[in-house]
C-alpha cells in the first residue's frame, strides 16, 4: 500500500483511546439503561482488546513504569465502588473486580518478563514466560478480575506480538479468536449468508478491534496531563453517572 495513502487512515493513540472509551460506554449503557439495545453490547466487545493493546503500548512508551503502574493502581481502587454499584447493585461486590485490575496483573507480568529478557539470557526468559503466562491466567481467574484470566492473557498476546510484522497480525488474530470464541464463548447468533447457515459468537466480535489497532502507527497524537487523567477518570466517573441515572429512573 502507498505510504501516503496509509497515513490518511492512520490512527493516533489519543484517537484509539477515544474509540475504546466510546465503545465501552456503549456496552455499559446496554448493561444499565438500555438492556433492549443488544447492538450496544455487540459494539462493546471491541473495546477491551483495544484497551489491552494500549496498556502494552503504554508500558513500552512510558518514561516511568513505577508512575504508570501506581497511577493505574490508584484508579483501579477509585473505580471499584462505581464498578460494584453498576454490576452488583451494591457498594461491595467481591465476585467481580474492575478491568484495571486485569491490566495491572497483565502489566506486572510483562514487566517481570521484560526484566529477565533485558539480561540477555534466552533460556531464562523462556522459562520465566512459561511460568508467568499460566500464573497470569490463574491469578486473573481466582481474583475474578474483569474478563478473568483470559483478559490477562490478552495483555500478554499484545506483548508477545508487539510490532508491525504481518505475521504478528495473523498471530493476534488467531490468539484473539482462541481467547474470545473458544475460551470465553457466550451468546451465539444464527446467521444466513449466501444460502449457508452458521452461528456467530458475540464475543468473537472482539476480533474487529484489530482493525483500529492496525491503523495505529505508533504516533501519540494529542497529549497533555489533563487529557491523560481524563482518560483514566472516564472509567469510574461514567459508571458512577450511569448508576445515578439508573437509580433516579427506578425511583
Automatic annotation (TrEMBL):
What the entry lists under InterPro entries is as follows: TraX (IPR008875)
Transmembrane residue ranges: 12-31, 43-60, 72-93, 99-116, 123-141, 147-163, 175-194, 229-249
Keywords carried by this UniProt record:
Membrane, Transmembrane, Transmembrane helix
Q: What is this protein called?
A: Conjugal transfer protein TraX
Native organism:
Clostridium segne
Amino acid at each position: 500500500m502507498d505510504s501516503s495513502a496509509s497515513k490518511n487512515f492512520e490512527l493516533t493513540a489519543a484517537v484509539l483511546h477515544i474509540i475504546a472509551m466510546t465503545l465501552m460506554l456503549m456496552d455499559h449503557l446496554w448493561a444499565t439503561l438500555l438492556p433492549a439495545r443488544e447492538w450496544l453490547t455487540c459494539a462493546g466487545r471491541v473495546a477491551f482488546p483495544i484497551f489491552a493493546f494500549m496498556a502494552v503500548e503504554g508500558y513500552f512508551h512510558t518514561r516511568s513504569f513505577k508512575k504508570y503502574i501506581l497511577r493505574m493502581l490508584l484508579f483501579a481502587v477509585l473505580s471499584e465502588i462505581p464498578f460494584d454499584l453498576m454490576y452488583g447493585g451494591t457498594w461491595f461486590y467481591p465476585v467481580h473486580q474492575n478491568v484495571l485490575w486485569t491490566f495491572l496483573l497483565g502489566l506486572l507480568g510483562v514487566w517481570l518478563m521484560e526484566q529477565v529478557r533485558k539480561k540477555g539470557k534466552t533460556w531464562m526468559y523462556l522459562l520465566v514466560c512459561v511460568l508467568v503466562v499460566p500464573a497470569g491466567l490463574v491469578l486473573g481467574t481466582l481474583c475474578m478480575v474483569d474478563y478473568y484470566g483470559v483478559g490477562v492473557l490478552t495483555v500478554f498476546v499484545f506483548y508477545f506480538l508487539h510490532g508491525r510484522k504481518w505475521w504478528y497480525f495473523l498471530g493476534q488474530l488467531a490468539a484473539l479468536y482462541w481467547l474470545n470464541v473458544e475460551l470465553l464463548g457466550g451468546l451465539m447468533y444464527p446467521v444466513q449468508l449466501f444460502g449457508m447457515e452458521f452461528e456467530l459468537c458475540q464475543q468473537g466480535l472482539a476480533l474487529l478491534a484489530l482493525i483500529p489497532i492496525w491503523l495505529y502507527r505508533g504516533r501519540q497524537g494529542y497529549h497533555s496531563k489533563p487529557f491523560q487523567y481524563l482518560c483514566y477518570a472516564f472509567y469510574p466517573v461514567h459508571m458512577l453517572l450511569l448508576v445515578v441515572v439508573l437509580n433516579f429512573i427506578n425511583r
